[in-house]
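WARN retry 2 of 3 for item q-0093 after timeout on previous attempt; input resubmitted unchanged.
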Amino acid sequence: MSKVDYINEFKDQAIREMHATGIPASITLAQGMLESDYGNSPLAKYARNHFGIKCHKGWDGPSFIQDDDEANECFRKYYSAFDSYRDHSEFLMTRDRYASLFDYKHTDYKNWAKGLKKAGYATNPNYADMLIKLIHDNELHQFDNVKMLPEKQSVAEMKTEKTYTRSEPIPHIASVSAIYVSDNSIKFITAKNGDTPEKIAERFDMGRWQILKYNDLAKGSRLVEGEVIYLQPKRNNAKKEFHTVQQGETVREVSQMYGVKMKTIYKLNDLDESSKLTDGQRLKIRKIGVLGAHFTGR
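OK item q-0093 returned
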């Protein structure tokens, strides 16, 4: 891929991540370009890893071994390059050492670049300058000012669609099952009659653990035909601020409805796993202070 090819391929995803998390699109793109050699590095080609993220403690997904600072280092391997973009956001959002970066505005790419270097994202002493130069040379900062992208349909609307929307071509999957994209950019399918987590994992060349984890399912869970099954991790925040509980709804059902993690709902509402929801209860499903400024025009 050339620089232009790379930018055209991934700019929309970088913008979506910015809208959802506050990470500048310019920073995400510049890091992807630099770390993956514009998508041409072995790690990007064979592991779909565009950000050089290593396995680290707690990673139980697929891995890819290659030499880096040391021989035979473990890097994360992804189902698609777009999963790498999603995980990059999750990685920055869930590591304490990067927490201070989110105090900067999403248009302040210079401080974000310096902060990433200071927090130890890369060992190269010129890392911040390299990112800033990439942003300047390719005018990536223009993407930090994009207020909105064409609206995606919500999960509820997608469930009745007969066609599918995909972030990238996956020919061997297209003929087997429709892949949809939720309104906060998470790929999902709807379960067919007789589907199990094991069958879905095999169909999409994933681990059973991924299907269980991404959908908060217990081992041995039975799926209902038409049920939303996410193929990627749910987000830490929903697009809207609140949900009004309907009679009989559970935290998991709300979590699946909006593609927001159950632990986020528990934390935002001072609930625990034993808590029962009540009809008409108003649940917070988004951190107001984190995302409010980034949904202008939506």
